[in-house]
C-alpha cells in the first residue's frame, strides 16, 4: 500500500498532523482522487483516507493465519481484462454487463428525516424527498447515479459509499496503523462466515465469550470449527481467562491446535449486555499480542452506547453537547487500540439505520481486505446496489457526517429511554430475592440472573436445564417471551451453575416493556413460591 | 411436504387438472393462504403452488449427496423460539429486532414503465410512480410495507416476492414432480457457491462444459474442487461425452471419486452462446439418470432467447402473438423435464431486470431448499429487503405476471436486434477464410472460431496460446476488446487445438457494435496477412 498520488504525506499540512475531524472532510475530499463515475469501478479506502494515516506504521503480516481456501483464491480472470477498458476510444465487446436501457427503474426516491427532526412523525410530515435518476452523473447532479447502482459492482462496494464509511471509520476510530482498509459487506452475518472461511480450517478452534450470539456460534460449527468459551464478568470477556486458556492449551486434550481467532462483541454484548471498559480492552489486547491472536470485533451495538443509568428517581444526564463530545463519550474500539493491525472489525447499519439494507462493512488491514474481496467476488459479490445508493443518498448527500452523528446522538437518547424503562420496571416488578442484574451501558439487551438454587424444583431432583425450561414456559404462559440463557452458551462447560434470561428493550413500547416485566415478575414469584 | 390446508387436491376443480395459466392465478391466490403481514414470517413455496402440483410424484432423496458441512447444519436456536410469537396477547422481549420507528426511511418511490411503453424514453416521460410506505399493510394499501422490508427477514425471502417467483416458476416450467420449492437468493454467484458447499466436499470433482463461465470455475477451485470438462458442439454439452467420462471414470487416475454434480448453462451458454435443444436436454438428462447425477442449471440467459436469425437480407420473424405463444417458444428447461427431482435451477433477475438488486432465486426439491435455507441463515441471510420490495412492487403489484411476460417479450425483440447487428457485422467485416461462427439463439454472447493454424506465427514456432494473445492484443491496439477463449476453459485439456474469441452484443450500441467488429476484422487481416 502507498498513499494515492493526490495525498501529499510530507506536506506538513494540518491534515497530515492530526486526526480527521468532520470539518476537515471537505478539504480532504477536494485533495483526494475524484469518484469514478462508470460501472463497477475498482476502488479502495486508500483513495479516501487522510494523509495523517500514512504517518503510522504498517500492520503485521497475516500470511500464517489464512486458511487453505483463502490462500487458494486468485484474481478473477475476467476482472483482469478490465485494465484495457481505460484505453481511450476502445469499444468493449468484452464484459457481459447488461445495458442500462433495459433496467426498468427510471427514478428512485426516498423520504427521509432532516436533522434534527428525526422522529417518525416529523419525518413523515416534513421529511425531505431525495431522488436518484439514471442520468445523474452525466448531468453533474450526483457522483452516483441509478444507472450505475443498478448494474454490477465490485466486491469492495461502490466508491461513493465506501468513501463515506472510510471517512466515518477514520473519524470515530482513527486506527493507529497505516494500511487499514474498509470493504462493504452484504451484512455482518455474511461477513462473519467469510472471516471464518478466510482464517480457519476444519478442526480449528476459535474463542468466543462463554455466552455469545448463538447464530455466530451456529455459523462456525458446520464449518467443522470448535469453540472454546472464555469466562466473563459484568464487563464481559476476562483477559485472565483468555490468557489461561491460551497458556495452558493442550492440543491432545483439546483435540485441536491452539486457537488464533477470538470473536468478541465488546459493546452491549449479545446476550449479556456487557460492555468492556477501556482498561479491559487494553488488557485483552495485550493477551492477544502475547499469543498472537486475531481479534474479530463484531460491533452492531457500538452506537447504542447510552447515557449512564441514574435510577428511577435520578437526574438524567444531559446529552453530549456536540460531535466532539459525543465521539469522546464512546468507549474506544479494539480497532482504535490496534497498534499491530490484528483486529478485524465487523460493522453494521442494522441496528442504527435498517437491517433490510443488508449492507455493512469490514475494517481490517489491507492484506485481509484483499483476501476478503477475492472471497466476496465469487460469493455475494457486493451488497445490493439499490441499498447502496439509498444509503449514500441519505448519509453522504443528505445528512453528511455531521447529520449522521446527530442521528446517532438522537438514537443514543432514544435507547437510553428504553433501557431506563426496562431497568426501572425490573426494580419495580422482579423479586429481588432471586433476580439480579446490572443496568446495561450499551446495546439492546438486559441480562437477568436467577438464583435457581432457590427453586423448589431442585429439591424435587430437577436439573438446572429443566428448571430453566420450566421458568421459561411459565413466563410464556404469563404472556411474556424472554430468551433462555442456555441458548447462548459457547460450549458445554459455559455458564456452569448459573442461570440467566435475556430481555430486549429494542422493540416493545415503554408501556409494553413495563407490562411484560410485570408478567415476568409474577411468573417468577409463582415459580419460586414467593 | 403436504399441500397447505387451503389447497383442495382432490377437488377435481379445473386448477387441479392442468398446468397453471396467467389467467388462473387470481383464483389460485383467492384459495391460498393469506400473505403474513408481520416481520420475518416463516414462509415456503407450498403456500403458493397450484393444486395440480400435488398430483405429481415426489422427488428422489438427496441424502447421499449432501456435504459434511450441509449435514452438520441445524435449525437456528433463536428461530426456534419464534413459535411462541403467535400466542395471542404475548409481549416479546425475546428477539433482537430493532424498532421500525428508528428506520429513517419514511417512504420509497420508484418510477417504472407501464406495458407496453417499455422504452427508456417512454418510461422517463410517462412511467408510473409506485410507492411503498411504512404503514401500507396496516391501512390495507399493500400486503408488503416498508416497515417489514426494512427489518430482518427469513432466508427464504419475503412471502410476497416468493409467491411471485413460485407462480412464475410454475407458469414457465411446470416441474413434473410435486415437492419442488423456490427460495430467494442474494444473486446467482452466491447461490452457486452455496450449492457447491452443500453438495461437495474438498477433493470432489464437478463437471462443467469444456468452455464455461470462468467465475463459476473460480468459485469452485478454492473450495478444493476439481473440474472435469465435458466436450461440446454447437448445441453445447455432448451427452455422449458426459456418459463417456462417467462410465470410464477411474478414481486412481483422476485422483478423486466419480462426480455427482454437473454444472451447465443450457441456454445462451457463457461463453459459447450455445443453446441445448430439447432433444439434447433429454439425452443429457438420461445420462444424469444413468449415473445418478445432480444437474445444476444456471440460467441467467433463459429469457434472452431470441427470434430465429434470418440474415442481413432475410425477413424478420414476427414476435410471439401472445403469452401462450411466447411460453411455447421457449426451449424446455431441465427443471421442466425433471421427473426425478435431480435438478437445481439457479434463477436470476440480473439480465432481465437489474443486476444491482442482488436478488434471484433457486428452484429445487424441498429437501435441498431446506438445506439451502439453513446455509443462508448463517451467511447472507436474505437478499436486501429494499431490493425485494421494489421487485415486488414492480413485478407483482404494477406489472403482474402478464406485464412481466410483456416485458420479457419486449426484451426478446431488443436482444434479437442486437444479435442481428453483431452477426451481420461479422458477415460483413470478418475474414471468412479464418473466422467462423454460428448465430446464437439466446444470451449475450457470440463465439467466433479462428483457424489459428493459418497464422504465420505457427511457422515461427509460436504456441496456440501465444498466437491467441497476439491476436487479442492486436485487437486491443485496434481499439476493440473481446475476450480470449482460453480464459473460459474448464480444465487444462479443454478446447485443445481450437481457438475462439467471445464478443458480447449486450452493452454497446448497434453503431458501436458494427465499428468494433470492423476493427476486429482489420486486426485479424493484419495478423493473418490477408
Form type of chain A: globular
Strands in their spatial order, largest beta sheet of chain A: 4-12-11-10-9-5-6
**Considering DSSP H and I runs of 4 or more, what fraction of the residues of chain A is helical?**
25-40%
Oligomer: homodimer
CATH fold name of the domain at 413-528 in chain A, please?
A: Aspartate Aminotransferase, domain 1
Question: Can you describe this structure?
Answer:
2 copies of one chain form a homodimer. Chain A has helices at 14-17, 25-31, 68-72, 77-80, 120-126, 146-149, 159-173, 188-199, 214-220, 239-247, 251-254, 278-290, 323-329, 334-337, 366-377, 385-429, 456-459, 464-477, 510-528, and strands at 91-92, 107-112, 128-133, 180-185, 205-209, 226-230, 232-233, 236-237, 261-264, 294-298, 343-348, 360-365, 435-436, 445-450, 480-481, 483-484, 500-504. With 530 residues, the first copy, chain A, is of the alpha/beta class. Chain A has a domain at 413-528: Aspartate Aminotransferase, domain 1 (Alpha-Beta Complex), CATH 3.90.1150.10. In chain A, the strands form 4 sheets. A 7-stranded mixed sheet of chain A has the order 4-12-11-10-9-5-6, sandwiched between helices. In chain A, strands 13-14-17-16 form a 4-stranded antiparallel sheet, covered by helices on one side. In chain A, helix 8 runs parallel beside helix 9 (214-220). The longest helix of chain A is centred in the C-terminal third of the chain and has 45 residues, at 385-429. The first copy, chain A, is globular, with a radius of gyration of 25 Å. The relative contact order of chain A is 0.13. Chains A and B meet through helix 3, strand 1, strand 2, helix 5 and helix 8 of A and helix 3, strand 1, strand 2, helix 5 and helix 8 of B.
